[in-house]
Amino acid sequence: MPERDEVSWNSIISGYVGSGEIEKARDLFEEMPVRRNIVCWTSLINGYGKEGNLNEMLGLFLQMLVSVDDVGPNSATMVCLLSACSSLSDFKLGKLVSIFIDVNEIPLNTILSTALIDMYLKCGDLEKAWRLFDGISCKSLVSWNALITGYVQRGLLEEAVRLFYLMQAESVKPNEITMVNVLSACAGLGALELGREVHIYLGRKGLDLNVILATALVDMYSKCGRLIDACLVFVKTTNKDVALFNTMILGLAYHGHGRDSLAVFAEMEKNGPDANDVTFIGVLSACNHSGLIEEGRVQFSNMVKKQKLIPKVEHYSCMVDLLGRAGYLDEAFEMIQNMEVPPDSIIWGSLLSSCRIHRNIELADKIGEAILSSQDPNLGFCILLSNIYASVGRWKDVARVRRLVKEKGIKKPSGCSWIEVDGVIHRFLVEDSIHLQSKEIYEIHEFVTNQLKVEGYVPNFDFVLKNIDGM
DNA sequence: GTAGGGTTAG
Question: Where are the PPR repeats (predicted)?
């Protein structure tokens, strides 16, 4: 074997790590005739981290600390550890790594700070993340992206959009990853105008419209009610993967285009990628939203028997809702009882609302018990139950539900809706008067309501939930 | 040797 220096050993080891041949890399690493430097150690540590083997990764790191090679971990080593903790959501270990960095005064460069920001955002410690971000003297695009991504993933969508503007004000140019996150925020906010601007920007910059960006666009357009634009992006995208198909199937399903949604699914079964469990959430919702009962039954059995997918509570939830609405209450009830997963209050609530529609008090009684004794009773369902009792004059039961709600301290955050007009997001709460044009808005609302009456609309007060004191 | 991305019921 020809003599090799440290540097060429490093590149051989990292080559094997890069191509996923971690065992080969490890064997060579053990037999190396020259001193193993920090690059070599870090390379192998990273290899274990990337394949999700935290135990081996940590073992190797500890081995390094006591090895005769006498190397100390540097910033890159810590980035590898943090990156593994973050992708495997092991935040306990991540915090330990962070403490190690502090104690050993490992220098914080931009990359290490960014890795720490990512970790702290995922744990929900926004303050620490911000302190780190402020401390970066040379904020990179990736640092901004980590911050924006973290905000989007925590559901802080308006703030994420604000960060996006702030980033541009600092003359940092966004890339695909920034745009995916901004589009995701737009989808959640219903911010069609900003979403469109992003789409136009992508076209103008000639940025590669990869399948991830396409998915984010399709999702944004569907959730903002622009199904035609969603379809256009979907059709134009080559190399469609399962997530893109799922997004399109769900988008069509939401908007009541059950048949079209199923057609996309059929196309996927024929020429596309394999379906997964998310696909069937879309397929079953398509059947549900379009009242395709028989099709729903067929697809559910297709999922279990042909595709060998194990149904989750979400799939059962779709089926229970589908069957319940159509009046097959006993079948829906039986399905909940025979599931191999524990029912949550949501699935019970769905069946309960079907009981109300079909006025099945006996079943509502049974479900009521299940909801009230469950871990997470939902206030909405308690009110629903109480209204069902009220509708048949069972006032004692109404009082019992009300007492339980008080005792358990069940609360519900107030509902909120918002709309974006000319890039400004307007937010509304029930019966609020916060908006500056509140007076005009209520006037128009009254006008529309009157117009509906003129056109012959008669509201069905039967289904309006009664507000009960203390609930 | 090193940081960041899309789809999930009611």
Answer: 5-39, 140-174, 241-275
